[in-house]
Protein backbone atom coordinates (compact mmCIF):
# COMPACT_ATOMS: atom_id res chain seq x y z
CA UNK A 1 0.00 0.00 0.00
CA UNK A 2 2.64 2.54 0.82
CA UNK A 3 4.40 1.78 -2.45
CA UNK A 4 1.23 2.13 -4.54
CA UNK A 5 0.32 5.46 -2.89
CA UNK A 6 3.84 6.73 -3.46
CA UNK A 7 3.69 5.82 -7.19
CA UNK A 8 0.29 7.54 -7.54
CA UNK A 9 1.67 10.74 -5.99
CA UNK A 10 4.70 10.70 -8.33
CA UNK A 11 2.46 10.29 -11.41
CA UNK A 12 0.31 13.21 -10.25
CA UNK A 13 3.42 15.34 -9.75
CA UNK A 14 4.70 14.50 -13.23
CA UNK A 15 1.34 15.35 -14.79
CA UNK A 16 1.33 18.71 -13.07
CA UNK A 17 4.88 19.39 -14.26
CA UNK A 18 3.92 18.65 -17.88
CA UNK A 19 0.96 21.01 -17.72
CA UNK A 20 3.26 23.69 -16.30
CA UNK A 21 5.31 23.91 -19.52
CA UNK A 22 4.92 27.07 -21.69
CA UNK A 23 3.29 25.25 -24.60
CA UNK A 24 0.59 23.93 -22.30
CA UNK A 25 -0.07 27.08 -20.27
CA UNK A 26 -3.28 27.76 -22.16
CA UNK A 27 -4.69 24.47 -20.94
CA UNK A 28 -4.28 25.58 -17.33
CA UNK A 29 -6.06 28.94 -17.85
CA UNK A 30 -9.84 29.04 -17.46
CA UNK A 31 -11.98 29.96 -20.43
CA UNK A 32 -12.88 33.71 -20.29
CA UNK A 33 -16.18 34.03 -22.07
CA UNK A 34 -16.63 37.58 -20.92
CA UNK A 35 -13.90 38.83 -23.36
CA UNK A 36 -15.51 37.26 -26.43
CA UNK A 37 -17.93 40.14 -27.14
CA UNK A 38 -15.10 42.67 -26.81
CA UNK A 39 -12.89 40.75 -29.29
CA UNK A 40 -15.76 40.45 -31.74
CA UNK A 41 -16.49 44.17 -31.50
CA UNK A 42 -12.85 44.99 -32.06
CA UNK A 43 -12.68 42.78 -35.15
CA UNK A 44 -15.84 44.40 -36.55
CA UNK A 45 -14.35 47.87 -36.02
CA UNK A 46 -11.14 46.87 -37.81
CA UNK A 47 -13.17 45.50 -40.72
CA UNK A 48 -15.20 48.71 -41.01
CA UNK A 49 -12.03 50.82 -41.02
CA UNK A 50 -10.55 48.65 -43.74
CA UNK A 51 -13.72 48.98 -45.81
CA UNK A 52 -13.72 52.77 -45.48
CA UNK A 53 -10.11 52.92 -46.64
CA UNK A 54 -10.90 50.82 -49.71
CA UNK A 55 -13.86 53.08 -50.57
CA UNK A 56 -11.70 56.19 -50.25
CA UNK A 57 -9.08 54.74 -52.57
CA UNK A 58 -11.71 53.81 -55.14
CA UNK A 59 -13.24 57.28 -55.05
CA UNK A 60 -9.84 58.94 -55.55
CA UNK A 61 -9.04 56.69 -58.50
CA UNK A 62 -12.42 57.49 -60.08
CA UNK A 63 -12.08 61.26 -59.57
CA UNK A 64 -8.49 61.82 -60.84
CA UNK A 65 -7.85 59.39 -63.70
CA UNK A 66 -6.62 62.18 -65.99
CA UNK A 67 -4.23 63.57 -63.41
CA UNK A 68 -2.72 60.19 -62.71
CA UNK A 69 -2.37 59.52 -66.43
CA UNK A 70 -0.72 62.92 -66.92
CA UNK A 71 1.69 62.24 -64.09
CA UNK A 72 2.57 58.87 -65.54
CA UNK A 73 3.10 60.39 -68.97
CA UNK A 74 5.25 63.18 -67.55
CA UNK A 75 7.37 60.66 -65.69
CA UNK A 76 7.79 58.64 -68.85
CA UNK A 77 8.74 61.78 -70.81
CA UNK A 78 11.30 62.69 -68.17
CA UNK A 79 12.75 59.22 -68.38
CA UNK A 80 12.95 59.55 -72.15
CA UNK A 81 14.38 63.08 -72.12
CA UNK A 82 16.93 62.46 -69.40
CA UNK A 83 18.79 59.31 -70.32
CA UNK A 84 22.07 58.62 -68.66
CA UNK A 85 24.60 60.60 -70.69
CA UNK A 86 28.21 59.57 -70.61
CA UNK A 87 31.02 62.11 -70.78
CA UNK A 88 32.34 62.87 -74.23
CA UNK A 89 35.77 61.54 -73.39
CA UNK A 90 34.20 58.19 -72.47
CA UNK A 91 32.24 57.90 -75.71
CA UNK A 92 33.74 56.07 -78.66
CA UNK A 93 32.83 56.64 -82.29
CA UNK A 94 32.23 53.28 -83.88
CA UNK A 95 32.36 54.66 -87.44
CA UNK A 96 34.74 57.64 -87.51
CA UNK A 97 34.93 59.51 -90.78
CA UNK A 98 38.02 59.58 -92.96
CA UNK A 99 38.28 63.32 -92.36
CA UNK A 100 38.34 62.81 -88.60
CA UNK A 101 40.99 60.11 -88.85
CA UNK A 102 43.15 62.30 -91.09
CA UNK A 103 42.81 65.33 -88.79
CA UNK A 104 43.71 63.31 -85.70
CA UNK A 105 46.73 61.84 -87.48
CA UNK A 106 47.93 65.27 -88.61
CA UNK A 107 47.51 66.71 -85.13
CA UNK A 108 49.46 63.83 -83.62
CA UNK A 109 52.28 64.36 -86.15
CA UNK A 110 52.24 68.10 -85.47
CA UNK A 111 52.53 67.63 -81.70
CA UNK A 112 55.27 65.03 -82.04
CA UNK A 113 57.39 67.13 -84.41
CA UNK A 114 56.84 70.30 -82.38
CA UNK A 115 58.06 68.61 -79.21
CA UNK A 116 61.09 67.26 -81.00
CA UNK A 117 61.90 70.74 -82.28
CA UNK A 118 61.59 72.25 -78.80
CA UNK A 119 65.32 71.87 -78.23
CA UNK A 120 65.55 75.18 -76.32
CA UNK A 121 62.43 74.82 -74.25
CA UNK A 122 64.38 74.53 -71.00
CA UNK A 123 67.95 75.10 -69.92
CA UNK A 124 68.25 71.35 -69.46
CA UNK A 125 67.19 70.66 -73.07
CA UNK A 126 69.58 69.42 -75.72
CA UNK A 127 70.26 72.97 -76.98
CA UNK A 128 69.63 74.68 -73.66
CA UNK A 129 72.87 76.65 -73.92
CA UNK A 130 71.50 78.57 -76.92
CA UNK A 131 68.30 79.51 -75.13
CA UNK A 132 69.42 83.08 -74.33
CA UNK A 133 70.39 83.75 -77.96
CA UNK A 134 67.09 82.36 -79.24
CA UNK A 135 65.21 84.43 -76.63
CA UNK A 136 66.92 87.55 -77.92
CA UNK A 137 65.80 86.72 -81.44
CA UNK A 138 62.30 86.13 -80.09
CA UNK A 139 62.33 89.62 -78.55
CA UNK A 140 62.50 91.19 -82.02
CA UNK A 141 59.12 89.71 -82.90
CA UNK A 142 57.01 91.15 -80.10
CA UNK A 143 54.29 93.55 -81.19
CA UNK A 144 55.02 96.04 -78.44
CA UNK A 145 58.62 96.26 -79.68
CA UNK A 146 57.59 97.12 -83.22
CA UNK A 147 54.91 99.59 -82.12
CA UNK A 148 57.35 101.52 -79.94
CA UNK A 149 59.99 101.48 -82.68
CA UNK A 150 57.52 102.69 -85.32
CA UNK A 151 56.29 105.54 -83.12
CA UNK A 152 59.87 106.64 -82.41
CA UNK A 153 60.66 106.65 -86.12
CA UNK A 154 57.44 108.54 -86.82
CA UNK A 155 58.33 111.32 -84.41
CA UNK A 156 61.71 111.73 -86.09
CA UNK A 157 60.56 111.51 -89.68
CA UNK A 158 60.53 114.81 -91.62
CA UNK A 159 59.19 113.66 -94.99
CA UNK A 160 55.55 113.16 -95.93
CA UNK A 161 56.30 109.90 -97.74
CA UNK A 162 58.12 108.47 -94.74
CA UNK A 163 55.33 109.49 -92.38
CA UNK A 164 52.76 107.93 -94.72
CA UNK A 165 54.59 104.60 -94.71
CA UNK A 166 55.09 104.63 -90.95
CA UNK A 167 51.44 105.48 -90.16
CA UNK A 168 50.20 102.65 -92.35
CA UNK A 169 52.74 100.30 -90.77
CA UNK A 170 51.53 101.31 -87.31
CA UNK A 171 47.92 100.62 -88.27
CA UNK A 172 48.94 97.26 -89.78
CA UNK A 173 50.68 96.30 -86.54
CA UNK A 174 47.62 97.24 -84.47
CA UNK A 175 45.40 95.22 -86.81
CA UNK A 176 47.74 92.24 -86.54
CA UNK A 177 47.89 92.34 -82.73
CA UNK A 178 44.12 92.65 -82.28
CA UNK A 179 43.28 89.96 -84.84
CA UNK A 180 45.78 87.45 -83.47
CA UNK A 181 44.66 88.10 -79.89
CA UNK A 182 41.00 87.57 -80.86
CA UNK A 183 41.70 84.29 -82.68
CA UNK A 184 43.83 83.03 -79.81
CA UNK A 185 41.04 83.78 -77.33
CA UNK A 186 38.59 81.83 -79.47
CA UNK A 187 40.79 78.77 -80.08
CA UNK A 188 42.66 78.71 -76.73
CA UNK A 189 45.22 76.18 -77.88
CA UNK A 190 48.14 75.56 -75.58
CA UNK A 191 51.74 75.12 -76.70
CA UNK A 192 53.40 71.73 -76.95
CA UNK A 193 55.10 72.19 -73.56
CA UNK A 194 52.28 74.28 -72.00
CA UNK A 195 54.55 76.99 -70.64
CA UNK A 196 53.31 79.90 -68.56
CA UNK A 197 53.19 83.15 -70.60
CA UNK A 198 55.67 85.85 -69.63
CA UNK A 199 55.22 89.55 -68.99
CA UNK A 200 55.76 90.58 -72.61
CA UNK A 201 53.31 87.91 -73.74
CA UNK A 202 50.58 89.43 -71.58
CA UNK A 203 51.45 92.96 -72.73
CA UNK A 204 51.35 91.91 -76.40
CA UNK A 205 48.19 89.79 -75.78
CA UNK A 206 50.11 86.73 -77.03
CA UNK A 207 48.92 84.23 -74.41
CA UNK A 208 47.87 81.15 -76.38
CA UNK A 209 49.58 79.13 -79.08
CA UNK A 210 47.36 79.28 -82.18
CA UNK A 211 48.10 81.19 -84.33
CA UNK A 212 51.71 82.25 -83.75
CA UNK A 213 51.76 86.02 -83.25
CA UNK A 214 55.52 86.31 -83.80
CA UNK A 215 55.32 84.53 -87.15
CA UNK A 216 52.40 86.69 -88.25
CA UNK A 217 54.19 89.88 -87.24
CA UNK A 218 57.46 88.84 -88.87
CA UNK A 219 55.71 88.04 -92.16
CA UNK A 220 53.77 91.32 -92.07
CA UNK A 221 56.77 93.53 -91.28
CA UNK A 222 59.14 91.84 -93.72
CA UNK A 223 56.63 91.99 -96.58
CA UNK A 224 55.76 95.60 -95.75
CA UNK A 225 59.39 96.75 -95.70
CA UNK A 226 60.25 94.81 -98.86
CA UNK A 227 57.36 96.46 -100.68
CA UNK A 228 57.81 100.08 -99.54
CA UNK A 229 61.54 100.46 -98.94
CA UNK A 230 64.34 100.31 -101.46
CA UNK A 231 66.79 97.78 -100.06
CA UNK A 232 69.86 96.11 -101.46
CA UNK A 233 69.75 92.41 -102.28
CA UNK A 234 71.69 91.28 -99.17
CA UNK A 235 69.38 93.25 -96.92
CA UNK A 236 66.34 91.74 -98.59
CA UNK A 237 67.75 88.25 -98.03
CA UNK A 238 68.52 89.04 -94.39
CA UNK A 239 65.01 90.41 -93.86
CA UNK A 240 63.43 87.22 -95.21
CA UNK A 241 65.83 85.10 -93.16
CA UNK A 242 64.98 87.12 -90.04
CA UNK A 243 61.26 86.51 -90.53
CA UNK A 244 61.78 82.75 -90.84
CA UNK A 245 64.08 82.60 -87.82
CA UNK A 246 61.63 84.55 -85.64
CA UNK A 247 58.88 82.06 -86.44
CA UNK A 248 61.13 79.07 -85.84
CA UNK A 249 62.50 80.53 -82.59
CA UNK A 250 59.10 80.27 -80.93
CA UNK A 251 58.89 76.60 -81.91
CA UNK A 252 62.37 75.82 -80.58
CA UNK A 253 61.44 77.55 -77.31
CA UNK A 254 58.47 75.19 -77.01
CA UNK A 255 55.80 77.91 -77.19
CA UNK A 256 54.22 77.09 -80.56
CA UNK A 257 53.42 74.14 -82.79
CA UNK A 258 54.53 73.94 -86.39
CA UNK A 259 50.95 74.49 -87.57
CA UNK A 260 50.73 77.59 -85.36
CA UNK A 261 53.79 79.01 -87.10
CA UNK A 262 52.46 78.20 -90.57
CA UNK A 263 49.08 79.80 -89.86
CA UNK A 264 50.86 82.80 -88.36
CA UNK A 265 52.82 83.39 -91.56
CA UNK A 266 49.62 83.09 -93.60
CA UNK A 267 47.77 85.59 -91.41
CA UNK A 268 50.66 88.05 -91.61
CA UNK A 269 50.55 88.00 -95.41
CA UNK A 270 46.76 88.37 -95.27
CA UNK A 271 47.05 91.44 -93.05
CA UNK A 272 49.56 92.96 -95.47
CA UNK A 273 47.18 92.43 -98.39
CA UNK A 274 44.35 93.99 -96.42
CA UNK A 275 46.39 97.09 -95.56
CA UNK A 276 47.42 97.47 -99.18
CA UNK A 277 43.75 97.58 -100.16
CA UNK A 278 42.86 100.19 -97.53
CA UNK A 279 46.08 102.19 -97.82
CA UNK A 280 45.74 105.63 -96.24
CA UNK A 281 46.79 108.64 -98.27
CA UNK A 282 49.32 111.20 -97.16
CA UNK A 283 46.65 113.75 -96.26
CA UNK A 284 44.79 111.25 -94.07
CA UNK A 285 48.04 110.28 -92.37
CA UNK A 286 48.81 113.93 -91.62
CA UNK A 287 45.36 114.33 -90.10
CA UNK A 288 45.92 111.30 -87.88
CA UNK A 289 49.32 112.64 -86.84
CA UNK A 290 47.76 115.99 -85.94
CA UNK A 291 45.09 114.26 -83.86
CA UNK A 292 47.70 112.16 -82.13
CA UNK A 293 49.82 115.17 -81.27
CA UNK A 294 46.74 117.21 -80.20
CA UNK A 295 47.55 119.89 -82.79
CA UNK A 296 44.70 119.19 -85.18
CA UNK A 297 42.02 121.82 -85.75
CA UNK A 298 38.89 121.22 -87.87
CA UNK A 299 38.96 124.86 -89.14
CA UNK A 300 42.52 124.83 -90.35
Backbone shape: elongated
Can you summarize the main beta sheet? none
Please trace the helix and strand order, writing H or E for each element: HHHHHHHHHHHHH
Q: Uncertain segments of ≥5 residues (pLDDT<50)?
A: 31-36
Class derived from helix and strand content: mainly alpha
Q: Bin the helical content.
A: over 70%
| Straight-line distance between termini | 160 Å
Summarize the structure.
Helix 6 (131-139) packs across helix 11 (233-252). With 300 residues, the chain is an all-alpha fold.
Record keyword descriptors for this entry.
300 residues, mainly alpha, 13 helices
Give the helices and strands, then pairings.
Blueprint: H1 2-19, H2 25-28, H3 36-63, H4 65-81, H5 98-117, H6 131-139, H7 143-156, H8 160-187, H9 199-203, H10 213-228, H11 233-252, H12 258-277, H13 282-292
Helix pairs in contact: 6-11, 7-8, 8-10, 8-12, 8-13, 10-11, 10-12, 11-12
Walk me through what this model shows.
- The protein has 300 residues and is mainly α.
- It has 13 helices and no strands.
- It has helices at 2-19, 25-28, 36-63, 65-81, 98-117, 131-139, 143-156, 160-187, 199-203, 213-228, 233-252, 258-277, 282-292.
- Helix 10 (213-228) packs parallel to helix 12 (258-277) and helix 11 (233-252) crosses helix 12.
- Mean pLDDT is 79; it is low at 31-36.
Amino acid sequence: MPSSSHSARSRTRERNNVLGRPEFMSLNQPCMRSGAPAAAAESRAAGSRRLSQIKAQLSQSNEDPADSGANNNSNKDKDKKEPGKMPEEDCMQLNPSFKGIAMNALLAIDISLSKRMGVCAYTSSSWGGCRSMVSLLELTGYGITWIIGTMVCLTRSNTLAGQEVLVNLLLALLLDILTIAGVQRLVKRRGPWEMTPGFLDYVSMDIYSFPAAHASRAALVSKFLLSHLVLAAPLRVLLILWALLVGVSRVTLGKHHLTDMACGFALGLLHFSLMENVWLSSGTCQTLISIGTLSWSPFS
